[in-house]
Amino acid sequence: MSPAPSRPRIRPWLVVGDLALAAAWVCAGALVKLFVYGGLGLAGRPEAEAVKVSLSIVYMFLFAWLEAASGGASYNPLTVLAAALASHGGPAVYLFTAFARIPAQVIGAVLGVKLIQLTFPNVGKGARLSVGAHHGALAEGLATFMVVMVSVTLKKKEMKSFFMKTWITSMWKNTIHILSSDITGGIMNPASAFAWAYARGDHTTFDHLLVYWLAPCKQPCWEYGQ
Q1: Residue 157 to residues 44, 72, 153, 161, 168: CA-CA distances in angstroms?
Q2: Which of 21, 68, 85, 206 could form a disulfide with 224 if both were Cys (CB 3.0 to 4.6 A apart)?
Q3: What Gene Ontology cellular-component terms does the record carry (predicted)?
Q4: Rounded distance, CA 175 to CA 169, Å?
């Protein structure tokens, strides 16, 4: 008789990795925009988006490698929430994710935004919601659903190639980001959205909660919680 599969273990050190990666992620995104718009002087030019996407793919590969090297740390609450649901690890794993890992990511993102604003005061104030709350929630929820759907598909296919898996997900995320950027900013990361909203002072509004937390977090719950 084969032994029963072991239940997922709680790994407290991931909290530190989550915090560090979340801080680095918001800094990386802001630095790319500063480099493209300020350093290269491409603000308002059509080629700016192509350069941004190219640089985004590069740092997405870097963060994918860091996630693997750290044993599962992540910069995105949706990633750890989906992983907790998919693991069927029981209440302990869910509680650890909800009350330790996700808050660490939020704190890390806030610290990252504070650092980048202190270092580069002209960095801006992040993406803003440019439509009504319900329209924005639909757009952000749909964008997140499409990204999660691809992640689930790749997981089910058990793709072994790190390069191909990261290439597909990074291209898909950038495509969805471009399509939704004029509506919600195409953030698809509640921690990053909160960090920029906190810097602006609008992080406690109903619109922010609905669009950047409730709508995106519903997608991994729907995909993995069935």
Answers
A1: 40, 20, 6, 11, 13
A2: 85
A3: membrane
A4: 10
Question: Amino acid identity of 59?
Answer: Y
Nearest residue to 109 via CA among 194, 12, 215: 194
pLDDT in tens, 78-132: 989 888 887 777 788 989 999 999 999 999 999 999 999 999 988 888 888 888 8
CA quadruple 199, 205, 208, 209: dihedral sign: positive
Q: What is the rounded distance in angstroms from the CA atom of residue 85 to the CA atom of residue 150?
A: 17
Residues 80, 18 contacting (CB under 8 angstroms)? yes
The answer to whether the predicted template modeling score (pTM) of the entire model surpasses 0.70 is: yes
Smallest CA-to-CA distance from 55 within 39, 40, 74, 36 is with 36
Matching residue, tokens 């291209």? 171
